[in-house]
Amino acid sequence: MKKLLVIVFAAIVGLSFISTSAFASSNKGQKIIVKKLKRPCGFNGGVLAKKHTQEEWTTIFKAGNLNGELKKICPKAKPLKKRYLKDVYDFLDNFASDSGNVPSC
Asked: CB atoms < 10 A from the CB of 55, how many?
């Protein structure tokens, strides 16, 4: 019985590490914005995220227009690779104008 409890406890601890990294996409999005958009835009990710509400960012992302909207806001920036868009969206949604969150970038 004790051996079973140790195995169950180890599995729970192991799964907690996996789920933590799955929610880190907002941090990845912040790093992408700092690396790819901050210089050509002339402002940081917090200013970028505040351009829309969470609902507006969600609508833009679901419509597949995130790169187009980023181009409107920041004409000098190059379009982001498709693999970056989900993480950037997570950041923008997390720090949108109506979220109450303030990023550290």
From this structure: 11
Q: What are phi and psi of 29, to 5 degrees?
A: -60, -40
Record the tokens describing residue 86, joined without a space: 């989900």
Q: Where are the domains of the chain?
A: 25-105
Question: Rounded to an integer, what distance in angstroms lies between the CA atom of residue 84 and that of residue 88?
Answer: 6
In total, the chain counts a number of residues equal to 105
Mark residue 64 as left, alpha or beta (left: phi above 0; alpha: psi -120 to 50; beta: remaining).
left
| Close Cβ partners of 41 (under 8 Å, ≥ 6 residues apart) | 48, 73, 74, 76, 77
Supply the pTM of this predicted model.
Answer: 0.73
What is the C-alpha to C-alpha distance for residues 29 and 33, in angstroms, rounded to an integer?
6
Confidence of residue 8 (pLDDT cuts 50, 70, 90): low
**In terms of C-beta density within 10 A (0-12 exposed, 13-18 middle, 19 or more buried), how is residue 44 classed?**
middle
CA distance 58 to 53: 9
